[in-house]
Known about the structure:
Blueprint: H1 2-8, H2 10-22, H3 35-61, H4 68-94, H5 118-138, H6 147-166, H7 170-195, H8 199-231, H9 236-272
Helix pairs in contact: 1-3, 1-5, 2-3, 2-5, 3-4, 3-5, 4-7, 5-6, 6-9, 7-8, 8-9
Amino acid sequence: MVNWVAGVGAIPAGCLLAWSISGLPSVLRPSMDFLPIIVLSTIFFTLARLVQYSIIIPWIKHQPGVDDIKAHKYAQQLMNITIHGISSLTLLYVLPSREWFWSPAALWTEYPNQDQQFVDIGLYLLQLGYHINCLCIHFTEPHRDDHIVMIVHHCSTVILLGTSYAWNFIRIGLMVLLYHDISDCTVCLCKLANYLNWMKVGVAFFPLMVSFWIVFRLTLFPKLIIDIFYFAPQTTAVYVCTFCLSVLVVLHLHWFRLMVVIAFQVKKSVVKGSYTNLTDLSEEKQKTN
């Protein structure tokens, strides 16, 4: 109950962000007609949370061997993999046909007067509404060791999406979303397998998750940041976005360290022929005190 009520708080947050963007100079506002999508997407995900906590979680709780905590985590990962999966498939379908997808310099061609297609901005702002909702929901969840880390992550993401939309960095933003969503899909698959106690499936997905993390989060993503230094106009907005992107790289390294620790646990469990000691993939343990 508390969680989805907190999600309602994301609605005025989305309205405030839309209002603040509307105050920018016209040259920096790519399309003001799309601003209602920020509010509508936030409302949509708030309603999705309501369905999640009133219908999906109670149904999951009735499944054998599923406690309250695991039911909440499972429902959350279902939502995550749905969002990241749809986003990844859409981006993989539309972006390769764009010339700027293959050329870092072309990302800034004709900036700031770059025309964006409806699917680009629509998907972009849907993601913004989703992350605003995640930020508000996070404050109602049980306190965990990574509580501060996740707040930093959510805040950086919202600032990035809002700033990059307001200053028409949509192309760069779509590339960042693609790199993150693809790797997030593998993380969600591993977590879902773990929550269902399908440990052998989780172990099978684990090398794929780590490989995608290294390729997209620790290789292509940092390269994109370096390209921004070379090709982007040197403005305050670029500096703000670059700083937030750099924060995300640090978080990616932190989570990769956790993956390495989990990898040793996986190796030990496979050697012993037991898969019961695997921890929550990519998450730190909740505090027990």
